[in-house]
TrEMBL record:
Record-listed Mg(2+) binding positions: D145, N174
Record keywords, A-Z: Isoprene biosynthesis, Magnesium, Metal-binding, Thiamine biosynthesis, Thiamine pyrophosphate, Transferase
Its job: Catalyzes the acyloin condensation reaction between C atoms 2 and 3 of pyruvate and glyceraldehyde 3-phosphate to yield 1-deoxy-D-xylulose-5-phosphate (DXP).
Pathway: Metabolic intermediate biosynthesis; 1-deoxy-D-xylulose 5-phosphate biosynthesis; 1-deoxy-D-xylulose 5-phosphate from D-glyceraldehyde 3-phosphate and pyruvate: step 1/1
Cofactor note: Binds 1 Mg(2+) ion per subunit. Binds 1 thiamine pyrophosphate per subunit.
Binding, thiamine diphosphate: H73, G114, H115, S116, G146, S147, N174, Y285, E366
Listed GO CC annotations: cytosol
Pfam families in UniProt: DXP_synthase_N, Transket_pyr, Transketolase_C
Domain Transketolase-like pyrimidine-binding as annotated: residue spans: 315-479
Protein name per UniProt: 1-deoxy-D-xylulose-5-phosphate synthase
Classification of source organism: Bacteria, Bacillati, Bacillota, Clostridia, Eubacteriales
Biological process (GO), any one: thiamine biosynthetic process
EC number in record: 2.2.1.7
Family to which the UniProt record says this protein belongs: Belongs to the transketolase family. DXPS subfamily.
Length: 622
């Protein structure tokens, strides 16, 4: 680590010569691998942008020049080069570095990301602000080919090409989203990659014409006049050019010297520029190059074998969902599965492989996916849009306007509901109950375990009267025999799991099992709780809640959503309607963004583990 040892800040990097920069890139790769194999994190994307990040910091002067990382999962090298090298071992851990750019971490993190395709809009905003204020600096956004497929990116390109403010968009094209990239743009980039260059084609063309005796020269002149149509066939990046960008590339994103040269050229262009850079996801680590999807976001692994250090016992909710939907789709021909670029994360790999004609990957385009589902449902199909809770936030208006208003039977299979752990603020699914619970026509349910998830998927596949939101958490489903019941799943009905005489606890989803553990502790302290698995947030079981309100002087709600607008708020409103005079305690997440860290640690910190719930209730009663 001879060179990396000397590099703590970009000022150190600026002093290095070409051969030292090349050594630095190898050393950074090794440093990344040593650290991320222990902590886990977004390895493959970072391995792919080592040279690009070095070149960006060599050419531009951050933080005066503004650098924006789209998604931000590939910003680890940027962190290493901007004074956070030694903290890399803490990345994504509670109180450690975030896995995404964070303004509170460094002045070099100019814009926070986590969700994709925001960087061009942000860059244009910054460029316009700079121009209005009469300042002089560069604005650079780095966006992947996957992220470029989203509507927001297109909206921003459309605007930026028109405004003509000076800004640089680096398109990092590794031919991959998390899985294989999809869509027309991806095919277009592929054509650019494989096309001969405009300059060479043009020369060849002119040489052929010139060689034709007598009329050749006239034909060259005619061709010159028709150059625009000629350009359409052969110029790389014409799509971007036509939108108003200067297109540079495609260039080898692992060649630091050519990157530096092209970025310097981009710097001199007075207007919006797109620099098309080709990289290899997972570059330099055999297992990540071979399997970029698996190493996109990885847990800790053995460097020599590429195998995960911890084998998870049990089955993940996502897998339960994917398997069950596949099983149902074999019988119910109207079922269609939709993903927005997350086939593996949502457990749909098997469905994709075995029923490709019923599987739709729209790319990173959640808004489009929701309205597409509405279109499918309007024609009698049964679409299941499997989507992470946090990314469905993108499709809010489409849920209201295109699905719920027309009462179309779309199922939102909302994965990663609740706290997701190490990704942090941008990824926790803690707002879904709140952003959905006020939408008319929408049914909202959450299973206590995988068995109930299967029942709910079956219920959803048969229900044709309107839309359903089915929310489940990240990770493994714990099934407790004591909680396994034969209670039929009836729309809007909860189930009583424990009948006690002192207090009532109403819980939902994953929190049912945790609340059950708290109940055992309460019982050991001579407090006999009733435990309700409410199952449906909407329609809420008003009869059951009224019955509880007549019997108990204390009613407690437990959820892994923010209390505002979630189960707590919904139960409180129901209790007000039934004139409840007793006390209510809402346990859930506070009105603030929750940071990153291991899920268990976050549950403890935010007092949602069974011990904390027990103590909170005990203290309240005392
Ligand atoms: C709105 C949104 N949807 C989905 C995701 C999940 N996601 C994170 S990275 C990624 C792939 C991005 O591909 P690309 O931009 O090409 O970057 P690469 O990982 O290839 O470097 C996806 C789908 C997200 N972060 N934001
Ligand atoms: C950066 C991003 O948005 C995804 O890579 C996300 O981190 C995946 O999360 P899971 O690990 O829960 O699939
Ligand atoms: Mg990519």
């Amino acid at each position: 680590m001879n060179v990396l040892e000397k590099v703590d800040y970009i000022s150190d990097l600026k002093k290095l010569n070409n051969s030292e920069l090349n050594i630095l890139s190898s050393e950074i790769r090794k440093y990344l691998l040593d650290n991320i194999s222990k902590t886990g994190g977004h390895l493959a994307s970072n391995l792919g942008v080592v040279e690009l990040t070095i070149a960006i910091h060599k050419v531009f002067n951050s933080p005066k020049d503004k650098i924006i990382w789209d998604v931000g999962h590939q910003s680890y090298i940027h962190k290493i080069l901007t004074g956070r090298k030694k903290q890399l071992s803490s990345i994504r851990q509670l109180d450690g570095l975030s896995g995404f750019p964070k303004r509170c971490e460094s002045s070099h993190d100019t814009f926070e990301t986590g969700h994709s395709s925001t960087s061009i809009s942000a860059a244009l905003g910054m460029a316009m602000a700079r121009d209005i204020k009469g300042e002089k600096h560069d604005i650079v956004s780095i966006i992947g080919d996957g992220s470029m497929t989203a509507g927001m990116a297109f909206e921003a390109l459309n605007h930026a090409g028109d405004i003509k403010s000076k800004m640089i968009v680096i398109l990092n094209d590794n031919e991959m989203s998390i899985s294989e990239n999809v869509g027309g743009l991806s095919k277009y980039l592929d054509r650019i990659r494989t096309a001969p260059t405009y300059g060479r084609m043009k020369d060849d063309f002119e040489n052929i014409l010139n060689s034709i005796p007598a009329i050749g020269k006239t034909m060259v002149r005619t061709a010159e006049k028709a150059k625009d149509s000629f350009k359409y066939f052969v110029v790389p990046g014409v799509l971007f050019e036509e939108l108003g960008f200067t297109y540079l590339g495609p260039i080898d994103g692992h060649n630091i010297q050519s990157l530096i040269k092209t970025l310097n050229r981009a710097k001199r262009v007075n207007g919006p520029v797109i620099v098309h850079v080709r990289t290899k996801k997972g570059k330099g680590y055999k297992y990540a190059e071979q399997n970029p999807d698996k190493f996109h976001g990885t847990s800790a692994f053995n460097l020599d074998t590429g195998k995960a250090l911890k084998k998870s016992k049990g089955i993940k909710y996502s897998q339960v969902f994917g398997d069950k939907l596949y099983e149902l789709a074999l019988k119910n021909k109207s079922i269609v599965a939709i993903t927005a670029a997350m086939p593996s994360g949502t457990g749909l790999e098997k469905f994709k492989e075995k029923l490709p004609q019923k599987f739709i990957d729209v790319g990173i385009a959640e808004q489009h996916a929701v309205t597409l589902a509405a279109g499918l449902a309007s024609q009698g199909l049964k679409p299941f849009f499997a989507v992470y809770s946090t990314f469905l936030q993108r499709g809010y208006d489409q849920i209201v306007h295109d699905v719920a208003l027309q009462n179309l039977p779309v199922v939102f299979a909302i994965d990663r509901g609740g706290l997701v752990g190490n990704d942090g603020e941008t990824h926790h699914g803690v707002f879904d109950f709140s952003y959905l619970s006020h939408i008319p026509n929408l049914i909202i349910m959450a299973p206590k375990d995988k068995l109930e998830l299967e029942k709910m998927i079956e219920f959803s596949s048969e229900y044709d009267k309107g839309p359903i939101a089915l929310r489940y958490p990240r990770g493994i489903s714990v099934v407790k025999n004591e909680l396994t019941t034969n209670n039929e799943l009836i729309l809007g009905k909860g189930e009583t799991l424990i009948e006690g005489k002192d207090i009532a606890i109403i819980s939902i989803g994953k929190m049912v099992e945790i609340s059950y553990e708290a109940c055992i502790k309460l019982n050991n302290n001579n407090i006999n709780p009733t435990l309700i698995n409410i199952r449906f947030l909407k329609p809420i079981d008003e009869n059951l809640i009224e019955r509880l309100s007549n019997k108990y002087k204390l009613i407690i709600t437990v959820e892994d959503n923010v209390i505002n607008g979630g189960l707590g708020t919904t139960v409180n409103q129901t209790l007000i309607k039934s004139n409840y005079r007793g006390k209510v305690l809402n346990i859930g997440l506070p009105d603030r963004f929750i940071e990153h860290g291991d899920t268990d640690k976050l549950f403890e910190k935010y007092k949602l583990d069974s011990n904390s719930i027990f103590e909170t209730i005990l203290n309240y009663i005392k």
